[in-house]
Amino acid sequence: MRIHVPSNVPMESTPFKGMEFEADEIAYGFYNEYGRKASFSIRKEYVNKCKKIGMVTSRRFVCAKEGVRGKDKRDQNVKNPRAETRCGCEARLVIILNRDSKKYVMSEFIAEHNHYLHLPSTVHMMPSQWKVAVTHAIEIDLAHESGLRLKQSYELLSKQVGGYDNLGFTKQDHKNYLRTKRQRDMEHGAAASLGRYFSHQLKENPSYYFATQLDCEELITNIFWADARMIIDYSHFGDVITFDTTYSTNRDARPLGVFLSLNHHSEIVVFGGALLYDETIESFVWLFETFLEAMSEKKPITIFTDQDAAMSVAIKVVMPKTYHALCIGICDEFLTAWNEMLDKYDVRENKWLIDLFKLKEKWAQAYVKRTFTAGMKTTQLSESFNADLKDCLRTDLNIVEFFTHFETVVNQKRDKELEAEYNPRQKFPRLNLKSSPMLNQVATVYTPKLFDLF
Q1: Residue where a domain terminates, one of 167, 185, 203
Q2: 288 and 393 share a domain?
Q3: Residue 427 domain-assigned?
Q4: Which letter does DSSP use for residue 60 in this model?
Q5: How many other CB atoms are found less than 10 A from the CB of residue 201?
Q6: pLDDT tens-digit readout, 180-229
């Protein structure tokens, strides 16, 4: 058996018999640090406690390769058995409590190992060195809430400290930390976790609005929420809105609905969100009634949606005077062009086209131009926002993580608005007619986007 003795370890970091420690955990930390510098992993082997005094009386810390794995009767049936990690190494450190001084004294120390020691560049991979520090935990949380994938987050943290070996934990530790955090967040169940999330939001801002619909078994079916900023924005820009549902790919697979519009900078503004149990008339009626309640019963002039029959019925019930528009066509001579198309392709008996024509008042420009649309023509606004939400809809997110990511996307949109507020104060529009009093006046009143349109 070849003996390997750690070298290049400073004397002040090397254990010796008679060394004293204030606590057994301090002794463990000292030996673990010695193991890091000597390039071997350690573990706790046994502990003796005195029930009478309620203290640890002795403890042994050993090399992680101490002992041998016990024989398992199942080994012969396992196709790919785990690799051996122990080889009977006898390196160890033993401490005993001095009952007079209440300190722990090192009674035994064996430095020799019967195996190769690790390379200094791989020390961070040793199990006893795996530890996510508090500062790193905060950064992991922030990266996760910002939508960074685990691989991206781990790469970012390693670059901040000059490499993986300086990080102090592996990618698996990173993954385990997030898994434990998820379990802790959801330890009381989805409904209770959601309740705590909304309670926190209300505490931060009493104007935060949320509502849940329960079924006959008192289980949450539909959820609607809007923060104070969304409610204020709706009072300014809620005359024309778009609403769309997309099947989310988070673990609950619930349809996600978002109320959107454009602000005075032609930037997307969010008025509220909903997670629905289904897409029935009853669910949409509850949602639209709840939305209007949150918005002080102010009904939009126009609402754009996709061609969902249940949604259409619900809009008629809840907002009968609101114009319901679908995707708008571009043909001015609509009827002539429509008939020419039917004849050209011989599709006058096509049922889909017949049904679509019955809805022409909702999508053909010749009809929709009679109502106020604030320049919006399609539900493309929703499609654009849904694309930004893709990280919120990952299958590995629980309900609380979903809301956190949704907040991030909304805040990104609000940052865009701040940029749009900054730019006209920093840059002045170019006037084709600099002597025009009217252009000079509206250039100071309109936002750049609307001034260009004017």
Answers
A1: 185
A2: yes
A3: no
A4: E
A5: 18
A6: 665 555 455 566 778 888 888 888 888 999 998 876 666 778 899 999 99
Are 109 and 136 within one domain?
Answer: no
For residues 58 and 176, membership in a common domain is answered with: no
Between CA 103 and CA 261 the distance in angstroms is 69
Residue 310 structure tokens? 């249940």
Nearby residues of 21 by Cβ (< 8 Å), 6 or more positions away: 27, 30, 95, 103, 104, 106
Which domain covers residue 153, as residue numbers? 130-185
Using pLDDT thresholds of 50, 70 and 90, give the confidence band for residue 330.
very low
Burial of residue 327 (number of CB atoms within 10 Å: 0-12, 13-18, 19+): middle
Cα 361-364-369 angle, rounded to 5 deg: 85
What distance lies between CA 29 and its chain's CA centroid?
A: 35
Instruction: Tell me the per-residue pLDDT of 69-95, one tens digit each, with 9 for 90 and over.
Output: 777 665 566 667 777 888 899 999 999
Whether residues 284 and 409 fall in one domain: yes
CA 363 – CA 327 distance, rounded (Å): 5
348-368 residue pLDDT tens: 888 888 787 766 655 555 555
Q: Are 403 and 143 in contact (CB under 8 A)?
A: no
Alpha carbon distance, N-terminus to C-terminus of the chain = 88
176 and 90 share one domain: no
Phi, psi dihedrals of residue 200, rounded to the nearest 5°: -65, -40
Position 453 in a domain: no
Residue partners of 206: CB distance under 8 A and separation at least 6 = none
* Cα gap 410→142, rounded to integer Å: 16
Report the C-alpha gap between 237 and 381 in whole angstroms. 14
> Which pLDDT value is given to residue 331?
61
Residue 80 lies in a domain: no
Check whether 165 has a pLDDT greater than 70: no
Number of structural domains the chain divides into:
3
Tell me the average pLDDT across 97-106. 93
Residues 148 and 217 in one domain: no
3-state SS, 44-59, equals: EEEEEEECCCCEEEEE
What's the CATH code of the domain at 385?
3.30.420.10
Per the domain annotation, does 366 fall within a domain? no
Same domain, 293 and 414: yes
- Tally of CB atoms within 10 A around 389: 21
Q: Is the domain of 324 the same as that of 241?
A: yes
